[in-house]
Amino acid sequence: MGTRPRGQRHWATALIAGGLAFGAPLLAAAQEAAGDPTVEVMAGACTFCHGPDGNGLGAATPSIAGLPVETFEYMMQSYREDMNPSTVMGRIARGYDDEQITALAVYFGDKPFERLPQPWIDQALVAEGKDLAAEYCESCHENEGRDGEGVGILAGQKLQYMRFSVADFLSGAREMERRQARKFRDLMDDHGPDGFEKILNYYASVK
């Protein structure tokens, strides 16, 4: 259920390591730019949908605060290149160059991920969802989904957004690496769609 297929994560990590001398100045410049009023203006446009400081308020718009820089960059680049299905994010992402995306990644990465109340969570599903998540998800989504390095933050993420993401993975609209695909297949075979729903309600409830 991660934001990034683990195979692509390994590819990205190798690429970054190989180009460290080239990429480090870009990140340093982005960190300096993150305090620039221009970056705050760009980030302000994001908060119209993603909420104050990147903490989304609705059920379907994800929180983007506190994400690792690499994860934020990957998501924006995948939207920009139409690797990730979207309604408006593809058009929005194409309006930013790599340096601007990195600056936004640093800006929002410095903001705390706030786990806001989600009254639409079905509390009756949470306990069983926790058990299923421990069996099918925890090996990648560690610390009850709080650790977002390479896979995105699931703990406290918006429920409807996670439903959309799972639907995209299951339909083939988003690519899964082999291990993730096997976990999804096993979960579907063992528990059907209800298993996913229980897990997602659990992760949305995590504080």
UniProtKB/TrEMBL annotation:
Signal sequence residues: 1-30
Cytochrome c domain location, by residue?
30-112, 124-207
Q: Write out the GO cellular component annotations.
A: periplasmic space
- Ligand binding (heme c 2): 137, 140-141
Residues at which heme c 1 binds = 46, 49-50, 89
Q: Which UniProt keywords apply?
A: Electron transport, Heme, Iron, Metal-binding, Periplasm, Signal, Transport
Mod. after translation: Binds 2 heme c groups covalently per subunit.
> Any idea which GO molecular function terms this record carries?
electron transfer activity; heme binding; iron ion binding
Kindly list the places in or outside the cell where this protein is found, as annotated in its UniProt entry.
Periplasm
Decide whether keyword Ligase is in the record. Answer: no
PANTHER family in alphabetical order: CBB3-TYPE CYTOCHROME C OXIDASE SUBUNIT FIXP, CYTOCHROME C4
Please report the name of this protein according to its UniProt entry: Sulfide dehydrogenase cytochrome subunit
Species this protein is from: Roseospira goensis
